[in-house]
Design a protein that fits this description.
heterodimer, A: about 325 residues, alpha+beta, three-stranded mixed β-sheet, two-stranded antiparallel sheet, about 10% strand, elongated, B: about 525 residues, mainly alpha, Cytochrome C3
């Protein structure tokens, strides 16, 4: 008899279960710890004075249009801003409601070790470079803006003003400057060295040393060490992170790990599609064959009956 | 029937809309909460069997006000024990089971509230959620009240120096409280946070002691921080005499006299009394010598805190080093000290305090040292190894010039300011007594003296992987200047570069290199 419908479906579910199970285990073991020797930037908010030198430098090195208000105008700090197509980085001011203490924090792409934007992009427009930055390739971008939705830090922006060749924009960590051996624009401009550039592993050491030396000045945590699987932009602060507009609900699982389990089944389903359709075809064909066979039998019996009796020919179906 | 059902279904969305609207209204007209110091958290009223109900936050003063207006007394809500003392629980002096408690409170509260509503003057709540909820209109600002030297002096004036009106010890033989002269101490030495072996808790004991005289006062008279601030402050208070010395040479005690190689610590008891205002900052558990509990090896009684830790623990408000370290966070001190590594003492730190004769020499020098000033090199003076005119007036910082002119740094003015702050404080003059130690606030990690090395001798290009936490020259200058200014509250957290730097005027504003076409 070969394959029955029931047994075929049974195999299918079993195979799918084994495949997903194996994949989950693999995903749990396959955590990526970042490229060794990748560069990163440490932002120490206790040193930041909110002078906006980094914003000005970012504007210059990226050839961005001149803003409406000068970078020397510090009144812009009075309202909360986010990154725009023309400002890859912004500094925001946070006032402690109880003590009145002011903290400034610079916001820009955090250059995740396993970027959510890259995992959401179905044309592969985002790439994590061994230097540590997350690069965007406008030539393949289709403008779906999934990356904007995927980013937990609300960073990528879309050039809505540009009707014909809109692009996603975000901080590049000054990849071209890094390749030339220069410092990122913002880091070079910071008068307080509130931004430290270096190997990520060195920065972690520096941050830990500062927390050890000044236990009363810092919260004992390096933000970006493990958040979203780790980022190449690290932060240490005196104020609780949520008070300076940083999300503390992100967990330590990198974004791609949330989707890799489900997405890994996709190729398998594509592979199984011919088997499934083939099986259905076999079942249908077999049923038709049986029907045909029965029909022939019936016709044969009817003819025989007719030949034998003639007058009392009967339909036995 | 079907018609009716259809009508109801038709009206349902409108009803829901109305509900949402009402809900929105109630949120937007949220009551501005006022603060009260009399909200007593009746923890026993949190229903254990129905945990959705909160414990009642009982506004005591409102109830007292109502009761006294209507001729009631404390007795209406509280019972008296066999000694004739008021019991602070609500109308009960014996423990009760949960079921009994529920009935006890509900019966009595509701009965009185129903009666009060009949008067019409007050609207006493009767629904579950009105009492078993976070108060909608009130927020607690209850603050503990401490008995400082000033408040103590005010009380001694009223009681005509009759210490026995408050101070007592328990005579276990006679089974009564007696006053013994010279044995006065802080309440918390005997009365702990909970009642122990028949000794009432500090809460119970202090209320009993205070209310005996202050029978007319309400909770907020003592526990409202605004009213606390209004209590008269006596500046010139007499010393609290209890037979204590003015000056002592502190050592680890007789047991280790011969062994200890480190000098004793000359300690001015009288100056610490003046500075602290209370005894319990140091004598936190009693007036016996520290080493009775804090033995050199650590004892169970002191929860393993050794004598060394008791004196040097950085995180304790009772230890010498911990308390002195806190002093450094004062604005006058933190300009220099806030930038220094926290919580670590260098090997040079020991002799700053341990500069008295060795314990083994104590017998020989007995009676020779009677005052702390005998150990100061020069009272009330911070010493410099050079004359005032040798201190540079203005230092021009011109190492880095990009967008701004060099900074004219008012060196002499800063030295003078720091010297003035130090000489205004006894503790600062003592600890900055060594020559030129004040210079090290800025000229750190380099030889003390007339010609310190330049900043750029150590601070060069930033982010050198070999010297990881050493800032570059740009960072070093800015961190030193703005860090100190911020901590000393001078010019705030300067984010305006032109406060110190004169603009060069060229290319001052970045972002001018490329002009994009203007958007329509």
């Amino acid at each position: 008899m070969g394959i029955t419908r029931r047994s075929f479906l049974g195999w299918l579910t079993g195979a799918a279960g084994v495949a997903t199970g194996a994949k989950t285990v693999e995903a749990a073991h396959g955590h990526f710890n970042g490229y060794p020797d990748s560069y990163a930037i440490l932002h120490d908010t206790t040193l930041c004075i909110g002078c906006r030198s980094c914003e000005a430098a970012c504007n210059t090195v990226n050839n961005l249009p001149k803003p409406e208000k000068s970078f020397k105008d510090l009144t812009v700090l009075d309202e909360k801003r986010r990154t725009t197509p023309h400002a890859f980085t912004v500094v925001n001011k946070y006032t402690d409601p109880h003590t009145g203490k002011i903290t400034y924090r610079k916001d820009q792409c955090n250059h995740c070790q396993e970027p959510a934007c890259a995992s959401a992009c179905f044309v592969g427009a985002f790439k994590k470079t061994p230097e540590g930055s997350v690069q965007y390739d406008a030539s393949v971008c289709v403008g779906c803006r999934y990356c904007q939705i995927a980013c937990p830090f609300n960073i990528p922006t879309f050039d809505f003003d540009d009707a014909f060749t809109p692009k996603i924009t975000k901080c590049t960590m000054c990849q071209p400057r890094i390749e030339k051996g220069q410092l990122p624009g913002c880091v070079e401009a910071c008068p307080m060295e509130a931004l430290t550039f270096g190997k990520r592993s060195d920065l972690v050491e520096i941050a830990r040393e500062r927390i050890r030396k000044y236990p009363q000045r810092y919260i004992d945590h390096i933000y970006g060490m493990d958040e979203m699987g780790g980022t190449n932009w690290l932060y240490i602060t005196e104020t609780p992170f949520e008070q300076v507009g940083m999300r503390t609900d992100l967990g330590v699982t990198p974004a791609p790990e949330f989707t890799s389990g489900a997405l890994s089944i996709v190729p398998m389903i594509i592979g199984l599609w011919p088997v499934l359709l083939g099986g259905l075809y076999v079942i249908n064909k077999r049923r038709d064959e049986i029907d045909e066979h029965e029909k022939e039998e019936a016709v044969k019996t009817a003819i025989e009956n007719a030949n034998n009796g003639g007058k009392e020919g009967r339909h036995d179906r | 029937m079907n018609k009716l059902l259809r009508k109801i279904m038709g009206l349902l969305p409108a009803g829901l809309l109305l509900l949402f609207a009402l809900n929105g209204c109630s949120e937007s007209t949220a009551v501005q909460k006022s603060t009260r110091a009399d909200l007593i958290n009746l923890v026993e009223t949190a229903h254990i069997s129905n945990p959705t109900r909160n414990a009642v936050k009982f506004p005591h003063d409102i109830h007292v006000e109502f009761a006294s207006k209507n001729g009631e007394e404390c007795r209406t809500c509280h019972e008296y024990n066999d000694h004739g003392d008021l019991v602070y629980t609500f109308k009960r002096s014996t423990p009760m089971s949960e079921d009994e408690l529920v009935k006890h409170y509900h019966d009595r509260c509701q009965a009185c509230h129903t009666e009060a509503n009949a008067f019409g003057e007050y609207k006493a709540p009767l629904l579950c959620g009105s009492c078993h909820a976070e108060p909608r209109r009130y927020e607690s600002n209850w603050t503990p009240i401490g008995f400082d030297k000033s408040l103590h002096y005010l009380h001694t004036m009223v009681t005509d120096d009759d210490c026995a009106s408050c101070h007592h010890v328990y005579d276990s033989v006679a089974g009564e409280l007696v006053y013994i002269e010279g044995e006065e101490s802080s309440c918390i030495i005997c009365h702990k946070s909970t009642a122990q072996n028949g000794t009432p808790s500090i809460k119970s004991a202090s209320h009993r002691a205070c209310i005996t005289c202050h029978s007319e006062n309400s909770c907020s008279d003592c526990h409202d921080p605004i009213r606390q601030a209004k209590i008269e402050k006596m500046d010139d208070t007499p010393r609290l005499e209890r037979g204590q010395p003015d000056f002592a040479l502190l050592s680890a005690g007789d047991r280790d006299l011969r062994r200890s190689k480190l000098g004793t610590v000359p300690f001015s008891h009288i100056e610490h009394e003046e500075a602290l205002g209370t005894c319990r900052t140091c004598h936190h558990e009693g007036f016996e010598p520290c080493q009775n509990c804090h033995t050199p090896g650590g004892s169970k009684l002191a929860q393993g805190v050794t004598l060394q830790q008791a004196m040097h623990a950085m995180n304790s408000p009772h230890s010498c080093v911990g308390c002195h370290d806190r002093e450094k966070s004062e604005p006058g001190c933190s300009g220099c000290h806030g930038l220094m590594e926290q919580g670590r003492l260098s090997e040079h730190s020991c002799t700053i305090c341990h500069n008295g004769p060795k314990p083994s020499e104590l017998n020989a020098v007995k009676g020779r040292f009677t005052s702390f000033d005998q150990f100061r090199a020069d009272t009330n003076k911070t010493r410099l190894s050079f004359a005032a005119k040798e201190i540079p007036e203005i230092v021009e910082v011109s190492a880095l010039q990009d967008r701004y002119q060099p900074v004219k740094f008012p060196h002499k003015r800063i030295v003078d300011t720091l010297m003035a702050i130090i000489s205004g404080s006894r503790i600062a003059t003592y600890f900055h007594g060594d020559e030129d130690v004040v210079c090290q606030g800025c000229h750190h990690q380099s030889p003390i003296g007339e010609s310190p090395p330049l900043c750029e001798n150590c601070h060069g290009e930033p982010f050198n992987p070999n010297t990881k936490n050493k800032p570059g020259l740009l960072g070093a200058y800015h961190r030193q200047c703005t860090g100190c200014h911020e901590k000393m509250n001078v010019l705030g957290r300067g984010n305006d570069c032109t406060v110190c730097h004169e603009d060069k005027g060229m290319q001052a504003d970045a972002g001018t290199s490329v002009e994009r076409p203007k958007e329509k």
